[in-house]
Design a protein that fits this description.
The complex is a heterodimer of chains A (290) and B (258). Chain A has 290 residues and is an alpha/beta fold. Chain A is built from ten helices and ten strands. Chain A has a single domain, classed as P-loop containing nucleotide triphosphate hydrolases (Rossmann fold), CATH 3.40.50.300. Chain B is built from ten helices and no strands. The chains are: A alpha/beta (290), B mainly alpha (258).
Chain lengths: 290, 258
């Protein structure tokens, strides 16, 4: 096993020290939440799901959101993808207000949501049918270039030869792999993952961590991952944001210094365990405070 | 000797034939008079004997039914889309539709005759009106029950409402739509024959009225048989289309994934 000291290499350009003010050096954040709140209902029945949340995410970063259940983690993803709108505050994606223009967003939920009437390949190619610049040439290229693109991705996640199968012919783990392919096929600059491996068994989950890490290292999209699994967050993310209990807000912001590619062995090393324990106690405290 | 499915189909065919054999034998054994219940062979003989006379009526009924059914499908789908995608339309149109469908269609025929005169038009309208309801209800249900998660997949990509409808909601509603078509096509015949019986001088309904007033019972039954054949034929056609378009929803049967 490698010593953890080596893992925090200079190449990663991150440190465990207290954050210094380097805002001038940082690239413009690709996602900005500015004093965003969400309130459901009105008057006396109003429930605040998200208290004033401010969060900047840099381009190419892999950010994990962890926190007690119901703290509004998924709500943040829905806000960024413009599926819901904030009650107050602003969300900027790529410098523009969310929803102002179509941005390349890939999204995957805990439920694989493959359309049952399409083959796996057609399911994966669905974003190409919707998103420009692929959309306008979809009819012309769906049997050649786009098809090859889908096949290449399927091969990367270990599903070569399954393109012609229908969703019900695949296992849960295979569907979740396809789900990742669909989220990535249009080469989105931004990948939003809502507990994508939550419903899988431990071994399949760890296998998919590795696949996701490889995909991220190859394509370097900005990733926002919502998860309950602290090992998962520490294994995959470069930065972990801990949220408080409902109404949620970010209460801690941890950099994850371990070098990539990370391996499963690393997750049992002291530095890794210390980090996950720290996250755990933060969440336990947040739950107790609620 | 045969594959399992072929054996299954042969068995089913055998049972259907057996039904008619029992009918035939029962009529002979119990001495049932032709004027009460003719034997299948007599009915078939009547059908062949009168066929030149029956043919124009048959074409008339088929034509009327298909036009009425076609209009019913167009209106049914349009209304179903409206009701299934809009909450306001759902709340206002549904009670109206249920109320209208509860009216016995026999009661509507005289009104159509009053407006358009006897003949083809009221028959088309009756058959249309009778088959709209199941189509509307099913299309609307199919659209309204689309899982929001399926829609979110596309919405997150910035898809328009039209994209979502075309790529998710409509394919998702296809099994519902075809289920309703099978109900609607049989109902369309009911509508046509009903109207022909009340107010027309053409069509199988009219033919059966005349035959029964002449006590030509085998001819009455020949008319019934023809209607049944037409109904089964069209049902089969829609089943075949359904298998191609919405086969994904039927993977439990051997119809799946051809």
């Amino acid at each position: 096993m490698k010593p953890m000291a080596r893992i925090a290499s200079a190449e990663d350009n991150v440190s465990l020290e207290a954050p210094v003010d380097d805002s001038a050096l940082r690239p413009t954040p690709v996602i900005q939440l500015e004093k965003v709140t969400i309130t459901y209902g009105r008057g006396e029945n109003a429930v605040r799901a998200l208290s004033e949340t401010t969060l900047d995410i840099a381009k190419g970063d892999f950010v994990a959101l962890v926190g007690p259940s119901g703290c509004g983690k998924s709500t943040i993803l829905k806000l960024v993808s413009n599926l819901i709108r904030p009650s107050t505050g602003h969300i900027f994606v790529g410098g523009r207000e969310a929803g102002a223009e179509k941005v390349g967003i890939g999204m995957a939920f805990q439920n694989p949501t493959m359309l049952p009437w399409l083959t796996i390949r057609d399911n994966i190619m669905l974003p190409l049918k919707i998103v420009e610049p692929y959309r306008s040439s979809y009819a012309a290229k769906k049997k050649t270039e786009y098809r090859d693109k889908a096949e290449a991705l399927l091969e990367k996640v270990g599903l070569k030869g399954f393109g012609d199968k229908f969703p019900w012919q695949l296992s849960g783990g295979m569907l979740q792999r396809s789900n990742l392919c669909r989220a990535l096929i249009h080469e989105p600059a931004l990948l939003l993952l809502d507990e994508p491996f939550g419903a899988l068994d431990q071994f399949t989950r760890e296998e998919l961590w590795d696949i996701l890490q490889k995909l991220w290292m190859d394509h370097r999209p900005t990733v926002l991952l919502v998860t309950h699994d602290l090992r998962e967050s520490a294994y995959l993310a470069t930065r972990i944001c801990v949220m408080s209990a409902r109404p949620g807000r970010v209460i801690a912001d941890e950099q994850v210094p371990f070098a990539r590619p990370r391996t499963l062995d690393m997750t049992y090393e002291p530095a890794f365990v210390t980090l996950t324990q720290k996250l755990r106690s933060l969440i336990v405290d947040a739950r107790a405070a609620a | 000797m045969f594959s399992e499915t072929t054996t299954q189909k042969l068995k089913s065919a055998g049972l259907i034939v057996l039904f008619f054999v029992i009918w035939e034998v029962a009529c002979i054994v119990f001495g049932v008079k032709e004027i009460i219940l003719p034997r299948p062979t007599v009915i078939m003989a009547a059908m062949i004997e009168y066929f030149p006379g029956i043919r124009p009526h048959l074409i008339q009924t088929l034509y009327t039914t298909m036009v009425g059914f076609g209009l019913g499908v167009i209106i049914g789908v349009a209304l179903g889309l409206l009701i299934g995608t809009s909450k306001v339309a759902y709340d206002t149109a549904y009670p109206l539709l249920v109320g209208f469908s509860s009216i016995p269609k026999v009661a509507v025929v005289p009104i159509f005759v009053l407006w358009f005169g006897a003949g083809t038009t009221p028959a088309i309208l009756t058959s249309m009106v009778i088959c709209v309801f199941p189509i509307v209800v099913n299309v609307a249900t199919g659209l309204a029950t689309t899982e929001p998660e399926l829609e979110d997949v596309l919405k997150a990509l910035g898809a328009s409402r039209w994209d979502v409808l075309w790529n998710v909601s409509l394919p998702r509603a296809m099994p519902y739509f075809f289920a309703s078509l099978k109900v609607a096509i049989t109902l369309a015949f009911v509508g046509t024959v009903l109207s022909e019986t009340v107010a027309s001088n053409r069509g199988i309904g009219n033919l059966m009225m005349i035959a029964s007033s002449n006590f030509n019972v085998p001819l009455v039954f020949a008319g019934l048989f023809l209607l049944a054949f037409l109904g089964v034929g069209l049902y089969v056609i829609f089943s075949l289309i359904e298998r191609r378009v919405a086969g994904w929803a039927m993977r439990k049967t051997d119809l799946a994934v051809a």
